[in-house]
């Protein structure tokens, strides 16, 4: 079997792909967020949300749905370098979170900050250990900068990274947050094994 058919067989056989399709989510990532929400009660936080790396919109759909069923009128602003088809109740900013122009656009929509930042940002990795490690560290740096700018006291940052980098990034985050927990989701496919860091401030 070639690489493409290999990927296809894995993809259609994946429970999270089937579940996300059944629920009408644009990406299987929505099922991962649902699992993280069940573990950490993310959506029960009474606050505005800043979502980073949102396209094609699976997480945005999940956030939008959860907020609507709970009747909460909190704002959600989502950011991605790539375009995203509109999601009800979500304000989308197209831009790079490392750029001042994007930060200014987010600021104008969330002038008072947020209680929760959710990042599913995935840098363009090249399966080259040194370059990938630089790319994931750059994302972590950008998230720290965004957290300093937008996260309110007691707020939380959920950050997706790769298992191989998780402990190092956690040790950096521990200098800036009062608690940092590393979680490896069972839905992560082994070849790109992802980990999530939940960083909570004072
Ligand atoms: C795994 S995808 C996100 C999937 C999304 N959470 C969903 O549920 O549909 C990662 C996204 O991160 C975005 N991204 C990567 N670097 C970025 C950056 N510097 N600023 C904003 N978005 C970025 C990519 O364009 C990509 O759409």
Automatic annotation (TrEMBL):
Keywords: Cytoplasm, Methyltransferase, rRNA processing, S-adenosyl-L-methionine, Transferase. Residues 25-201 form the Ribosomal RNA methyltransferase FtsJ domain. It catalyses: uridine(2552) in 23S rRNA + S-adenosyl-L-methionine = 2'-O-methyluridine(2552) in 23S rRNA + S-adenosyl-L-homocysteine + H(+). Its EC number is 2.1.1.166. It comes from the Bacteria. It is found in: Cytoplasm. Its main location: cytoplasm. Transmembrane segments: none annotated. InterPro entries: RNA_methyltr_RlmE, RNA_MeTrfase_FtsJ_dom, rRNA-MeTfrase_E, SAM-dependent_MTases_sf. GO terms for cellular component: cytoplasm. The active site is at residue 160. S-adenosyl-L-methionine binds at residues 57, 59, 80, 96, 120. One of its GO terms (molecular function) is rRNA (uridine-2'-O-)-methyltransferase activity. Coiled coil: none annotated. It is an enzyme of class 2 (transferase). The keyword Methyltransferase applies. Belongs to the class I-like SAM-binding methyltransferase superfamily. RNA methyltransferase RlmE family. Specifically methylates the uridine in position 2552 of 23S rRNA at the 2'-O position of the ribose in the fully assembled 50S ribosomal subunit. This is Ribosomal RNA large subunit methyltransferase E.
